[in-house]
Structure formats: C-alpha cells, structure tokens
Amino acid sequence: MIDLSNSSPFSEGGNRKCFLHPDHKDKCIKIIKEDVFKEKLKSLPWYKKFRRHSTFNDNFREEKGYQQPALQNKSPEVWKHLAKWYGFEETNLGLGAVTELILDNGQIAKTLESYLLEHGITPELKVAIKNFHTWLREYLVLTKNILPHNIVLKQDKGELVLVIIDGLGSKALLPFPNYSKFFAKRYVERRIQLMSSRIDWDLRGREGSWK
C-alpha cells in the first residue's frame, strides 16, 4: 500500500485530489474526496439511487473512458495528446487511479487555462490547437466537454502540444459514438466546437454562458 500521509496534493479538482506518485516521478495518483463523494450520493435524485455507487465515482468513470474503442488503436500516435492510464493502486487515502504525469522541461506541465490567462491565444497555441483537433478527428477519441483546466501543455521536439489529463469518456445519452464511426465523428465535432466556445469564453472574461 502507498502511504500518502506526508504528501500534499499538487492539484485539486471538485471531486479528486492529485498526488505525485512516491515511487514513479512520471506518474500521479488521483484520489476521490470521500466527503464530496458521500454528499453527491446523498443528493442523487431517487431514480439514480438504485445504480451502483461506482457509477458516480470519477476514478471508475475515468477507467471506463480509457476502455473506449479508439484507444485500442496500436499506433503510438493515439497517445500523443493523452496521458496514459496505469490502473489502480491502494493507498492509505483509498483506491487511487494512476495516470501519466505530464512534464514540461522537467516540471509539472501547466494547464491550458493558466496559459490562456497569462498569454492569450498566441500563434504557437493556434498551431497546437489545430494539431489537437486534427488528432481528435483522426482517432475519434471520445471526451466529455474539453475544458482548459483538463488540458496541459508541453514542448515536444520544438512544438507546443496539448495533452488531455482528465475528462475522458462520452457524454452521449446513448452509446452510439462508442460503436459507430458516423456518430463518433459527429460527437467529436461537437466537442471541438464546444472547446472553441469555452476558450473564447475564458478570453472574454467568462461573461454569459460559454455554450
């Protein structure tokens, strides 16, 4: 079991905390916030209370996202814009999801959100976003809404690269995008449109609705 007693999270979202893996400098461990998770379960509408609790656990949701057909592609290029998944490990804080820690020049990579706030849309970022969209369209990787705080940036062979670190999986009510290329293409195009809208919203000072 991994002991995280003396560790502090380097990042924290609404539902999880992210810790550096003590044994692997290129991995991180995502831990569910138990108090938040319990409150979420309490506030579920009655028709959802009969579902398994794991359905609402972000770690298990992420595992399911990594099991999608697009990621069974053997090409290493499918991982160019996505943090790798390494499974689960037991910790003293509960079961942790272990994923690749994206580094940039030896440091934890900054989020797209922080980049936008600091630099705005630079020519280098425009190219990076275009390459990211091309990758999405080619491999049809299914994501939830692509939010700037769920993407980090790193330099790779002289170019800026966007990497998804969270939000993998489909938001579709019915699972058609998982099994049909036609529906997957439509789904991915919609995520790309929403990603652009979200970036514009961030740059406008987050006024009104980003959708």
Layout of helices and strands:
Blueprint: E1 11-12, E2 16-20, E3 27-32, H1 34-42, H2 58-66, E4 85-91, E5 94-100, E6 103-104, E7 107-108, H3 112-119, H4 123-139, E8 151-156, E9 159-164, H5 176-179, H6 181-203
Antiparallel strand pairs: 1-2, 2-3, 3-5, 4-5, 6-7, 8-9
Provide the spatial order of strands within the biggest beta sheet: 1-2-3-5-4
- Beta-strand proportion: 15-25%
Overall pLDDT score: 93
- Please tell me how large the radius of gyration is: 18 Å
Q: What can be said about the biggest beta sheet?
A: 5 strands, antiparallel
Number of helices: 6
Primary descriptors:
single chain, alpha+beta, 5-stranded antiparallel β-sheet
What does this protein structure show overall?
- The chain has 211 residues and is α+β, with helices and mostly antiparallel strands.
- It has one domain (11-203).
- 33% of the residues lie in helices and 20% in strands.
- It contains 6 helices and 9 strands, in the order βββααββββααββαα.
- The chain has helices spanning 34-42, 58-66, 112-119, 123-139, 176-179, 181-203; strands at residues 11-12, 16-20, 27-32, 85-91, 94-100, 103-104, 107-108, 151-156, 159-164.
- Strands 1-2-3-5-4 form a 5-stranded antiparallel β-sheet. Strands 6-7 form a two-stranded antiparallel ribbon.
- The chain is globular, with a radius of gyration of 18 Å.
- The mean pLDDT is 93.
